[in-house]
């Protein structure tokens, strides 16, 4: 006999106790899930994101969360919970921490861009000391600060279940990054971590040095995001030296740094020797034509593992883009390239138009599409990229679930 009516009655009564109306959206979702035997067996994700354009829902508050977890505690088929862009504070984090300590079925939790601070981070990280079900946690955009990040670094020394952790845009600092790097020398379960946009006061790149040391010994990390780390040539050299013998990392994100052509020379040497890396994101650096040529030389002759290259907004002209296009023609493994934001002159437009026209470069594998005006070929931008829909939900209901981040469709090992 189904327990769903009792769950809904519990939910309605709890809402009435809070002087709030019943939420028909949650009720309908739970009811549909209960009727679907397949969903009940494999679980599903309950999406209550505050930026959902398809289903207008009120933003979840701390009080709402208390009502929600009281229902979900008995709904074992809910294995994922998306609470992004809501109004949760440290009080809500306390409720969620208690739920994580008691729940043994939740595998995915998205809390990105709420108002959780340092004390909330301490509670959630503390709950993960004992939780053995959660696999993927997104804390993106919560201003937990350096101290809040330290709590998650300490958690990584103990937790052996979590596989993906997103601390991007969380205002973490030097001490947090160093502690996280040290924790990952011991942690054998984490496969992906996002450390984008820390707040760093030093220009000495100490954090990159510690992360490089970690990569020398870590054999489990598959995906690493180091965007907006103010990384320069010195830091890139340290990373490349560490990755020469690393055989696990498949996705390296170095977007929005200060990498110029000299730094790309080290990346070119890495691609000649490393046959594991599959995705390289150099978006919003300044590698220019010289750097593009370094990459094209490595990809044309030596490397046969890289599938995706993003060089968006790198001040590359037709000379460098033509060299990369020639590398694509000789390297059958390289299937995705993103080039928008560079200087797309006539030669670049022509060569990429030919690649697309002959089918060597599929439309869904790049961020440009050719069009013709008065006999001359130009390139227009497509809304594609490695970070597609990372921070916002698409308005079109037909978008596949895996398209929440285009890279997840390319390297499936990074999706949990």
Automatic annotation (TrEMBL):
Keywords: Repeat
SMART domains assigned: LRR_RI
Residue ranges crossing the lipid bilayer per the database entry: none
Alphabetical list of SUPFAM superfamilies matching this protein: RNI-like
Highest rank taxon of the organism: Eukaryota
InterPro entries the record matches: Leu-rich_rpt, LRR-containing_regulator, LRR_dom_sf
PANTHER family: LEUCINE-RICH REPEAT-CONTAINING PROTEIN 34
Protein name: LRC34 protein
Organism this protein belongs to: Toxostoma redivivum
Lineage of the species this protein comes from: Eukaryota, Metazoa, Chordata, Craniata, Vertebrata
Underlying gene: Lrrc34
């Amino acid at each position: 006999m189904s327990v769903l009516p009792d769950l809904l009655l519990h939910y309605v009564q709890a809402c009435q106790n809070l002087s709030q109306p019943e939420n028909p959206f949650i009720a309908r979702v739970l009811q549909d899930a209960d009727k679907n035997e397949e969903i009940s067996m494999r679980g599903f994700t309950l999406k209550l994101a505050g930026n959902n354009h398809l289903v207008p829902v009120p933003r979840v508050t701390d009080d709402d969360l208390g009502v929600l977890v009281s229902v979900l505690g008995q709904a074992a088929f809910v294995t994922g919970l998306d609470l992004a862009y809501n109004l949760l504070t440290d009080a809500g984090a306390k409720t969620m921490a208690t739920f994580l300590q008691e729940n043994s079925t939740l595998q995915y939790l998205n809390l990105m861009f709420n108002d959780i601070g340092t004390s909330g981070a301490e509670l959630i990280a503390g709950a993960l000391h004992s939780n053995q079900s959660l696999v993927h946690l997104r804390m993106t955009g919560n201003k937990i600060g350096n101290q809040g990040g330290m709590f998650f670094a300490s958690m990584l020394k103990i937790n052996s279940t979590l596989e993906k952790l997103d601390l991007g845009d969380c205002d973490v600092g030097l001490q947090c990054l160093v502690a996280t790097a040290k924790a990952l020398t011991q942690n054998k379960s984490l496969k992906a971590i996002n450390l984008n946009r820390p707040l760093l006061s030093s220009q000495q790149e100490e954090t990159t040095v510690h992360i490089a040391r970690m990569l020398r010994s870590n054999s489990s990390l598959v995906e690493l995001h180091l965007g907006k780390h103010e990384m320069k040539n010195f830091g890139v050299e340290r990373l490349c030296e560490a990755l020469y013998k690393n055989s696990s990392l498949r996705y390296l994100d170095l977007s929005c740094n200060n990498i110029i052509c000299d730094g790309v020379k080290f990346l070119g040497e890495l691609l000649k020797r490393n046959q594991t890396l599959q995705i390289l994101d150099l978006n919003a650096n300044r590698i220019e034509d010289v750097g593009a040529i370094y990459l094209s030389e490595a990809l044309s002759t030596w490397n046969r593992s890289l599938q995706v290259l993003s060089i968006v907004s790198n001040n590359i002209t037709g000379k460098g883009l033509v060299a990369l296009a020639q590398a694509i023609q000789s390297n059958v493994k390289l299937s995705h390239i993103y080039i928008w934001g560079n200087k797309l002159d006539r030669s670049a437009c022509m060569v990429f138009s030919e690649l697309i026209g002959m089918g060597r470069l599929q439309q869904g594998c790049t961020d440009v599409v050719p069009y013709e005006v008065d006999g001359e070929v130009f390139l227009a931008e497509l809304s594609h990229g490695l970070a597609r829909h990372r921070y916002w939900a698409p308005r079109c209901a037909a978008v596949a679930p895996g398209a929440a981040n285009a890279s997840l469709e390319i390297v499936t090992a990074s999706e949990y």
